[in-house]
């Protein structure tokens, strides 16, 4: 089986067994040393270590789960330290049956952060949102981030400025690697906000809350300064962080337009 998936671009999912977590699109390759021990080298050159990982080697939409020790060696034909059985290929087994998981994203190799833009409708299946871009908006960078590109880069979905008689606002969405997986999104946001306060001396307090946007719960922060209001949303998806930020002139009509826009964001499959 290793021969099939060696040197393949993979869909890889970090799993903690109970519960199993979400998926992230990565690239890497299997390696075997002179002793016949297998390891998996991450796309940035590091070995996967000390955890369970779902790997869909042939991109057929079905992944098997593998466990690696602290040095990055694959457990094979044994019982792992946390009590799970793996076969000679390293796949997790239960009652003699390899355990698999269906990959929830398209098996096309499309980078995880890429959005689909049809007319004025922008949607992203991976992060599960769909929004309608207001007519007349300046869709900065939209084309760049809805085209195929380097699957290992960070992706913006949209950097948008909209202005009309009802108010104006700017919005951008981006994703980045979660470098603090043990820290909740709300705590990461609070740390970021404290940095902003100390660095830029924002004159008013940051108001924190949780808010549902497009059917998903985000940690949210609202703050004001120097004539502008800002609303930032943050949530974790697999081993990535999604940020969605709105900035607008500190006027009632602009804030009302922003809030109306946010309420209209739907899941990707929404109508």
Task: Please provide a written account of the structure.
The chain is mainly beta. It is 12% helix and 43% strand. The protein is built from 3 helices and 20 strands. It has helices spanning 2-5, 185-200, 252-263; strands spanning 9-15, 24-32, 38-42, 51-56, 62-68, 78-79, 85-86, 92-94, 97-98, 100-102, 116-118, 121-124, 129-132, 138-140, 156-164, 167-177, 207-213, 216-225, 228-237, 240-249. The protein has a 7-stranded antiparallel sheet. The chain has a 6-stranded antiparallel sheet with strand order 3-2-1-4-5-10, with no helix packed on it. It has a 4-stranded antiparallel sheet with strand order 6-7-8-9, with no helix packed on it. A hairpin with a 5-residue loop joins β4 and β5 (62-68). The chain is elongated and about 65 Å long.
**Number of strand segments:** 20
Give the helix proportion (percent range).
10-25%
Strand order of the largest sheet: 14-15-16-20-19-18-17
**Class derived from helix and strand content:** mainly beta
Distance between the termini: 42 Å
How is the quaternary structure best described?
A: single chain
Poorly predicted regions are: 1-27, 104-111, 143-153
- What pattern of helices and strands is seen along the backbone? HEEEEEEEEEEEEEEEEHEEEEH
Helices, by number, come to 3
Using the alpha-carbon principal axes, give the shape. elongated
As a percent range, the share of strand residues is 35-45%
Largest sheet: 7 strands, antiparallel
Mean pLDDT: 75
- What is the rounded Rg? 22 Å
């Amino acid at each position: 089986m290793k021969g099939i998936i060696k040197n393949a671009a993979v869909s890889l999912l970090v799993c903690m067994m109970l519960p199993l977590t979400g998926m992230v699109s990565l690239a890497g390759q299997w390696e075997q040393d002179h002793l016949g021990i297998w390891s998996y080298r991450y796309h940035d050159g590091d070995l996967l270590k000390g955890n369970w990982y779902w790997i869909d080697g042939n991109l057929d939409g079905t992944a098997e789960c593998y466990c690696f020790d602290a040095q990055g060696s694959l457990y094979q034909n044994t019982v792992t330290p946390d009590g799970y059985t793996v076969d000679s290929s390293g796949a997790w087994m239960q009652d003699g049956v390899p355990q698999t998981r269906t990959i929830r994203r398209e098996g096309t190799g499309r980078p995880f952060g890429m959005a689909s833009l049809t007319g004025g409708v922008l949607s992203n299946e991976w992060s599960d949102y769909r929004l309608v871009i207001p007519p007349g908006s300046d869709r900065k960078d939209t084309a760049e981030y809805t085209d195929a590109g380097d699957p290992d880069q960070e992706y913006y979905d949209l950097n948008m400025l909209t202005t009309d008689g009802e108010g104006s606002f700017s919005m951008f969405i981006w994703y980045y690697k979660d470098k603090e997986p043990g820290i909740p999104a709300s705590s990461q946001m609070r740390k970021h906000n404290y940095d902003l306060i100390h660095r830029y001396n924002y004159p008013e307090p940051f108001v924190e809350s949780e808010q549902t946007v497009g059917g998903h719960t985000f940690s949210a922060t609202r703050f004001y300064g120097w004539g502008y209001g800002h609303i930032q949303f943050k949530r974790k998806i697999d081993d990535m962080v999604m940020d969605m930020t709105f900035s607008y002139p500190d006027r009632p009509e602009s804030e009302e337009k922003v809030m109306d826009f946010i309420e209209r964001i739907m899941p990707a499959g929404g109508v």
